[in-house]
Amino acid sequence: MCSENVVNPEPVRRGLIGLFLGGGLLATFASFIYPVLRYFVPPQVADLGVDEVVAAKVGDLKPNASAIFRFGSKPGLLILDADGETYHAVSASCTHLGCTVQYKGDAKEIWCPCHNGVYNMNGANVSGPPPRPLQKFNVHVRGDQIFVSRNTEA
Ligand code: FES
């Protein structure tokens, strides 16, 4: 007479096991998909926080060389042309996933070592995964200091 009130625990157990297995499979799938999505969807460009900085002093750079400088919370890249007179300044944060780019003087291009992204001297994306150009800055030489400021013409 007591056996009529006993509930069979088997369907509940199977439901719980199915729930845990499904959750585990979903977590595993997400751990594979998330890095792929991060690779193809670049991060938003953050505000740099300042409008002008002293990037270097005149004479710090040799012709066809570069230097990394701090522009707010982000790195900037200052390049002195091979002519020894023309400066270029761009954000040094790659527009793909934010790695710090570097200047390759032999090829006269800006290169990102993370995924082999290439930009030209003006910061335009030329090849590789970068989806847009590097942010370009204005360069002004005042006295013996090289000032870099935001390009407000955009
Ligand atoms: S971070 Fe991927 S190419 Fe620069």
Layout of secondary structure:
Blueprint: H1 10-40, E1 52-57, E2 65-71, E3 74-80, E4 87-91, E5 102-104, E6 109-112, E7 117-119, E8 125-127, E9 136-142, E10 145-150
Bound molecules: FE2/S2 (inorganic) cluster.
Residues 94, 96-97, 99, 112, 114-115, 117, 128-130 line the site of FE2/S2 (inorganic) cluster (FES).
Structural class assignment: alpha+beta
Q: Which cofactors or ions or other ligands sit in this model? A: FE2/S2 (inorganic) cluster
User: Which outline best applies?
Assistant: elongated
- Helical fraction: 10-25%
CATH architecture of the largest domain: 3-layer Sandwich
Number of domains: 2
CATH homology superfamily of the largest domain? Rieske [2Fe-2S] iron-sulphur domain
Alpha-carbon Rg, integer: 27 Å
* Main beta sheet strand tally, sense and closure: 6 strands, antiparallel
Q: Number of DSSP helices?
A: 1
Task: Report the CATH topology name of the largest domain.
Answer: Rieske Iron-sulfur Protein
CATH class of the largest domain: Mainly Beta
Q: What order do the SSEs take from the amino end to the carboxyl end, as H and E?
A: HEEEEEEEEEE
Terminal CA distance reads: 85 Å
Instruction: Note the beta-strand portion.
Output: 25-35%
What does the average pLDDT come to?
88
Low-pLDDT regions = none
Widest sheet: strand ordering: 1-10-9-4-3-2
**Tally of DSSP β-strands:** 10
